[in-house]
């Protein structure tokens, strides 16, 4: 029996493209994927649970992990750190679980540097016009902020070359089907299987 290690899948794309919606739809289906739990220095909110919503750390402990390269990526928002712990991801992969990370483009590029063996999926808007409509329809941002977000989105789209796959999000269910197909095909890649069989042959000899 071949023990297959899990694969880290990273879903990313410009703000407003619908990453969260696609991820939720993917996890609403029967899936063996493990969601990558983030680490944060912010206070636990009522109803949140350690190791379910986040791993909660003090600022000092978080900064020590940064120094030790124990985070696949991290960022600071409003005086709090957020990041992806390497240990949790590697533990899940060793146990044979696929791990799914949904993240902003800058974070994905950090992960690419720290964990290049991950599989990077870029969620693409059907058009910039559609992206603009999605950002505007959130109704939470001023005109100036909408324009800034769009400028940022243009820059992020130019970073698409850092990814392995591109999925256009014009229909959530279709996007989910495409991501499931990517997951399946990654497990069937010759080099992954060859590595396992090589191990099997060495064990037999």
Number of helices, where a helix is a run of at least 4 consecutive DSSP H or I residues = 8
Enter the CATH topology name of the largest domain. Rossmann fold
Nearest-integer average pLDDT: 89
Secondary-structure element order, N to C: EHEEEHEEHEHEHHEHH
By CATH, the superfamily of the largest domain comes out as: P-loop containing nucleotide triphosphate hydrolases
- Estimate percent helicity: 40-55%
Strand content: 15-25%
Domains counted in the coordinates: how many? 2
Secondary-structure arrangement, i.e. CATH architecture of the largest domain: 3-Layer(aba) Sandwich
Distance between the termini: 16 Å
The stretches of 5 or more residues where confidence is low (pLDDT under 50) are: none
Strand order of the largest sheet: 2-7-1-8-9
**Counted beta strands:** 9
Outline: globular
- Biggest sheet, open or closed, and with what strands and sense? 5 strands, parallel
Q: Give Rg in angstroms.
A: 18 Å
Structural class: alpha/beta
> CATH class of the largest domain, please?
Alpha Beta
Organism: Virgibacillus pantothenticus
Protein name: Guanylate kinase
GO molecular function: ATP binding; GMP kinase activity
EC number: 2.7.4.8
């Amino acid at each position: 029996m071949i023990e297959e290690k899990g694969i880290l899948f990273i879903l990313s794309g410009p703000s407003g493209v619908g990453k969260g919606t696609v991820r939720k739809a993917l996890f609403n289906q029967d899936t063996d994927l493990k969601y990558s739990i983030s680490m944060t220095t912010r206070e636990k909110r009522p109803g949140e649970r350690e190791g379910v919503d986040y791993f909660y750390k003090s600022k000092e402990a978080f900064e020590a992990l940064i120094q030790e390269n124990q985070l696949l990526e991290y960022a600071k928002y409003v005086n709090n750190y957020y990041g992806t712990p390497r240990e949790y991801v590697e533990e899940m992969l060793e146990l044979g679980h696929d791990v799914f990370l949904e993240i902003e483009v800058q974070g994905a590029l950090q992960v690419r540097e720290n964990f290049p063996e991950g599989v990077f999926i870029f969620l693409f808007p059907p058009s910039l016009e559609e992206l603009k409509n999605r950002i505007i329809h959130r109704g939470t941002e001023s005109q100036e902020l909408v324009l800034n977000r769009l400028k940022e989105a243009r820059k992020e789209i130019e970073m698409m070359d850092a990814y392995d796959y591109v999925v256009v999000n014009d229909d959530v269910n279709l996007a989910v089907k495409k991501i499931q197909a990517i997951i399946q095909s990654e497990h069937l890649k010759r080099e992954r299987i060859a590595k396992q069989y090589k191990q099997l042959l060495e064990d037999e000899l």
